[in-house]
Design goal:
This protein is α+β, with helices and mostly antiparallel strands. Helices cover 40% and strands 19% of the residues. α6 links the parallel β5 and β6. 7% of the residues are buried.
Length: 178
């Protein structure tokens, strides 16, 4: 931990045993620092057209070829038990979208090429559906139907955020986050 604090390098514990002298440990530290400086990610300016990554190109191409599709949609349902502060959840979701440009990226054609357009941070819409009045015997089917509806809705890659979030309220302390 002192090496980490002093040199700002994460050195595996194994290195201490493999390098019993200070001189050998210094060599390991130098190698670790060299590896860190080689993996620095440089920030690309947002004032120019950003080309699509290979995965984005594939997604955009298939969207152009087949029209809007749900092939690449990744959906998940999370059961939340206990008291839920919906306002705090909304704030957390907004912070996630603020931090992750990929969730705010749309694909538009500029000239003859598709490019990434990264929008400024925006407020995410958390749709809340109250299912408390739905009879217990029908509630599971209703949750499944709503989850399927959300998963089966294609994204408009040229205009829409790449995240959709819905909250289903089953009881005062039971929710499903889609």
């Amino acid at each position: 931990s002192r090496i980490r604090e002093t040199f700002a390098v994460e050195l595996p514990l194994r290195s201490l045993f493999e390098s019993p002298t200070v001189q050998e440990l210094t060599i390991k530290l130098d190698q670790q620092e060299a590896a860190i400086t080689q993996t620095v990610i440089t920030v690309v300016g947002r004032d120019r057209n950003l080309p699509l990554s290979f995965a984005q190109q594939r997604l955009w191409f298939l969207d152009q070829l087949d029209g809007q599709s749900t092939t690449y949609n990744i959906s998940q349902a999370l059961q939340l038990s206990g008291p839920l502060d919906v306002s705090a959840l909304q704030q957390a979701l907004n912070e996630i979208v603020r931090r992750h440009e990929s969730l705010r990226t749309t694909f538009q054609v500029r000239g003859n090429s598709p490019v990434q357009v990264i929008s400024s941070p925006v407020q995410v819409t958390l749709s809340v559906t109250d299912l408390q009045s739905t009879p217990n015997k029908d509630r599971a089917d209703q949750v499944q139907q709503l989850a399927n509806d959300i998963a089966d809705k294609p994204y408009d890659l040229s205009h829409e955020l790449l995240i959709r979030i819905s909250l289903l309220k089953l009881a005062p302390e039971s929710h499903v986050l889609l």
